[in-house]
Amino acid sequence: MERFLTMARRAMLEAAAGLKDAPDEIGAGLTFFSALACQCFINEYVFSHTEDEIQKASKLRASLVAALEARTGVPVLWPVAVAAYFPLCSLPPATRILDGQWPKAVTNVLIQQVREPLEELQDRGTIPQLTEIADEVSRLVQNQYEENPYPRWVKSAPVLKSRNIVEYLCQEFPMTAFKRHGRTGRIDILIAGCGTGQHSIERARQFQDAHLLAVDLSIGSLSYARRKTRELGITSIDYARAVS
Q1: What's the pTM value of the predicted model, to 2 decimals?
Q2: Spatial contact of 214 and 110, defined as CB atoms under 8 Å apart
């Protein structure tokens, strides 16, 4: 499957760059190509490529940037093909691409690679920092996830059955002497190393009477987590930057 998708990406690039005549099916294939571009963004552009291929992709990116700066027409496949090799949010005039009228499939790519990253960028300055990140190993880990927040998940896990925290702990650790009675009032839960928010969101949905503090080293991961939390309408999680 990965080999097929890698070859499909190259075929899309060649069609977009005009290296060969675009097939008549390109209109019908636009949805597939757009989904492929989205997948490339999610998997951090892990697909292999040849040197010639990346040079062609870079040339197409330069043509797209020039067209956006000049505000001239952009072929519909250009942003999709570029998005399959480079995140569109990295383009100098990225916001201009949002002004055009695009097919729904292309719009999905633009939302994922331009609008949502811009929303996350605006969030960065509002996430509090609880601890200093001073040691060298922590800084190296932080830098890795600033560049590549992982995982860039799209769909949340199925909602777990709402539980009482004491009942849950008694079930998970039956040999431990928890007080086996219900507890009223708010429960505070710490999610240490929350990454991009999957775990904290799952727990917020499971323990609806709880308040969660989710911390991580990476501001990039935290801003992704906060956006997804807001997208799902969850209000019981606070995010902060800290060494866990």
Answers
A1: 0.83
A2: no
Token pair belonging to 212: 């969660």
**Rounded Cα gap, residues 172 and 150, in angstroms:** 28
Q: Mind listing the pLDDT tens digit for each residue in 177-196?
A: 766 555 556 789 999 999 99
* Bridge partners for 19 per DSSP: none
- Amino acid at position 160, single letter: L
Helix then strand then coil, in percent of the chain rounded to 5, is 55, 10, 40
Handedness of CA 56, 58, 63, 64 (dihedral sign): positive
9 pLDDT higher than 80: yes
The candidate with the shortest Cα–Cα distance to 150, out of 205, 213, 217, is 217
Helix axes 136-147, 219-231, angle to 10 degrees: 50
Helices (H) and strands (E) in the chain, counts: 10, 3
Going from N- to C-terminal start, the domains of the chain cover: 2-124, 136-241
CATH of domain 136-241: 3.40.50.150
| CA 215/CA 151 separation, integer angstroms | 16
